[in-house]
Amino acid sequence: MTVEWIAVDWGTTNLRAFAMAREGVVAQASSEDGMGRLDRDGFEPALLRLIGPWLPEGRVTEVIACGMVGSRQGWHEAPYRAVPCTPLDSGSLVTVPTRDTRIRVRLVPGLKQGSPADVMRGEETQIAGALALLPGFDGVVCLPGTHSKWAHLSAGEVVSFQTFMTGEMFALLSQASVLRHGMQGEGWDDAAFDAGVSDALARPERIGAKLFGIRAEGLIAGLAPTSARARLSGLLIGMELAAARPYWLGQAVVIVGSEGISASYARALKGLGVEARLVKGGDAVLAGLGVTRARVNA
Fold first, then answer.
1. 72 in the same domain as 15
2. CB 54 within 8 A of CB 94
3. What is the pLDDT of residues 69-98, one digit of tens each?
4. Is residue 128 a part of any domain in this protein?
5. Parallel/antiparallel/unpaired status of strands 15-21 and 253-257
6. Measuring CA to CA, which residue among 33, 28, 31 is closest to residue 53?
7. What is the extent of the structural domain holding 228?
8. Which tens digits make up the pLDDT trace of 131-161?
């Protein structure tokens, strides 16, 4: 196996590495050695545990990494770039000092916005990948997740963006609040999700009351856990869509993320008359890192 370079997606909880050759991905590996579990001296050993078998002796292999690895608490800080700007700039990559002479590691900077204050780290690579996969796209990219992002793109630049803590709120409310008692098990209820989205969009100021209503209905009317989970998701995504209306209204929208959550956002937007295109998050990361690597070596 001939490895030309290595792409790395290094988040808070997980580390994913991809051995890249001319024909694409030739090997991949992952671990739970995310940024949140490592101190500054633990990053290089964690990386080498994954990619060591791919490294030939007598040659330096290029590693390009995005995500929280470049945060202030990560391996080495890659300072934010201010919008408006292109999502990636090969000249802004930050080289990390390494002990192992077989690798040269460079980190992708995140993006920042002064007013309203906002930051992203990792999503800029997915945005660049979406642009590579959809040449000439102008419009809005939605990146759902723990901290969902909406980014306005024009002429290949990120003009502005906004973050919503929707995924984190879902996790906290479903696992650590009084609502957790009615959300055990698996399953889903599309009708309950749709109702939650509709309720939140119609009266976003009543979201607190609607949330407790999930618990109350479970106690006195036997609301099923599948319906409770789906309604909670619908309420939170609907609240996000109400606040993000200036981004998606009248715009071409692309959703970049994992299949499950992307499908939920696409369903909610379709109910508002918006037909969003979907791009898998993993595909976008690799495409974005690939574009960066190509520009570095141009």
1. yes
2. no
3. 999 999 999 999 999 999 999 999 999 999
4. no
5. unpaired
6. 28
7. 163-280
8. 999 999 999 999 999 999 999 999 999 999 9
How many angstroms separate the first and last alpha carbons of the chain? 24
My answer on whether 169 and 267 are in the same domain is yes
Of 12, 154, 132, whose CA–CA distance to 83 is shortest? Answer: 154
Residues 255 and 179 placed together within one structural domain of the fold: yes
pLDDT per residue as tens digits for the range 169-186: 999 999 999 999 999 888
In whole angstroms, give the CA distance from residue 70 to residue 58. 27
Looking at the domain assignment, is residue 172 inside a domain? yes
Answer yes or no: is 134 within a domain: no
- For position 272, which CATH number holds? 3.30.420.310
10 domain-assigned: yes
Residues 116 and 182 in one domain: no
**Residue 152: strand pairing partners:** 140, 160
For the question of whether the overall pTM of this predicted structure is more than 0.85, the answer is yes
Q: CB of 174 within 8 A of CB of 229?
A: yes
Give yes or no: residues 219 and 115 share one domain: no
The answer on 109 and 9 residing in a single domain is yes
Per-residue burial over 172-211, b if 16 or more Cβ lie within 10 Å, else e, is: ebbeeeebeebbeeeeebeebbbbbbbbbbeebeebeebb
Task: Put residue 184 in one of left, alpha, beta given phi > 0 → left and psi -120 to 50 → alpha.
Answer: beta
Sign of CA dihedral 291, 130, 77, 25: negative
